[in-house]
Every structure is written in structure tokens, then in C-alpha cells.
């Protein structure tokens, strides 16, 4: 993990150093700021769950026999949840480093997006519990040249966020259709939406919308990974707000490979 962090910081700095010599002093200050933002965020995200685990373990050790079973179970659940959170965070961080250092070269193959959506929904079932999920994938979508693992990760992160930020019992919509030379995937939720000035920044590493910070623990890496993976596969991803009600909309566009475009033209 430490190496991954060092790599990330070095990369940020290297990128900054590529810029014009004249700007060097300003950029050096920016590099410092970046490095310390990275460290603050990472140490906070590692410390908080660790403190929770340590606290729960200590209480269990000291009061194990005197404690009602329900309380014991609560503490064990805390340990489990915080461990999950830690491993999610470390996983995200490693994914991010892999993209940044170019280690994750998309393993592209012609894939059926409908199948990827199905597989992601199965994997996300535990996260989506308590939400209504409405899926509409138009038939006969062309095959796409994508890395199925990365694509699943992108969709999973978006579903995970929708479930995290939108209230229990609300509806999450996932649509897929063709729009000219692209296949569009769109996720809608009924949560608070995203402040208009933040619709681009939420894709930055470690950026979180402040007023939501206390609502849900997160890493601020999920969407940076979505964008990194999507762009590595030649696609785009953007965020917006719903017009009909409150809620966020995430739109992904993947290009239809030329051979597939010709095939559909021949068929019609
Ligand atoms: P995390 O969820 O771990 O904080 P992300 O990179 O996935 O990190 O998201 C960055 C920020 O974007 C979140 O902290 C949240 O403020 C905002 N966000 C993401 N998805 C949604 C959503 N579906 N509805 C509202 N806000 C969202």
C-alpha cells in the first residue's frame, strides 16, 4: 500500500513537472498541496475504520462474558463492516494506481453489454438490497469492444453509489440503448443529486461533496476509477441531475466498433 501511495504521489508530481518551466514554483506548491491532501485523506480513511475495529475488539475482550449476546453481535458486526470498508478502500487505491501507472491495460474483447449488466447486477445484489432496481436494455445492441472486468467495475461502483446516496426503498434505473455510433448506459437514482458546480469534480480522486460526507463513509475514489476505466476503453462518463425530480444521472457512452457498425448496416 505504501508503495502504491508513493507511486501515486510521484506520478502526480511528475505530471506537474511536465508543465512549462515558468510555472515551476507555482506547480511545486501545487505538488506539495496534492501530496499532503493525499496523505490526509488516506490516513483519515485508514485510521477511522482501524479505530472502530480496535475499539470493538477491546470492548469485546474486556466485557465478553458480562455482555448480552446482542451487544456482542453488534460489536462483531462493527468489526466486519469496518474490515470490509478497509479492504474496499485499499482495493480502490490499488485499482487507481494501476490505471495511473498504465499497468491496467484494458483486455478488450467483443462483448455483449447485456451480459455484463446481468453479471454486475448479480454481484451487486447484496448492495442493492432495499432498493427497487428497474433495468431496461434495448434488444439487439451491437457487440462492444470492452474489457468485461473493468466494465463491471464501472457499473458496480455506480450502482454502489446510487444505493449509498439514495434513500432506502427508492428506485434505481439502469437503461441501455444505441445512439448512432455509440451505446449509451445510463444510471438514475432518487437521491439528493449532485450540486451543479461539482458534476465534474466528483470524478477527481478523493473529491467528495462536503455536505454528504457525514452521511456515508466513502473514499472519494469510486468515480475516479469509473472515469479512468471508461476512458481507458475509449468511452466517456458524465454526471448530471434529473429534471423530473431530485436524483443523479450518470451517462456512459461506449463507441460501437466499426466492424459492428457495418454489420448492422448490412442487416438493415
Ligand atoms: P465516495 O462515494 O467513496 O465518496 P466516489 O468517487 O464514488 O467516492 O464519489 C465522489 C462523491 O460524489 C461522493 O462523495 C458523493 O459526494 C458524490 N456522489 C457520487 N455518486 C453520487 C450519487 N449517486 N448521488 C449523489 N452524490 C453522489
UniProtKB/TrEMBL annotation:
<protein>
    <recommendedName>
        <fullName>histidine kinase</fullName>
    </recommendedName>
</protein>
<feature type="domain" description="Histidine kinase">
    <location>
        <begin position="41"/>
        <end position="258"/>
    </location>
</feature>
<comment type="function">
    <text>Member of the two-component regulatory system KdpD/KdpE involved in the regulation of the kdp operon. KdpD may function as a membrane-associated protein kinase that phosphorylates KdpE in response to environmental signals.</text>
</comment>
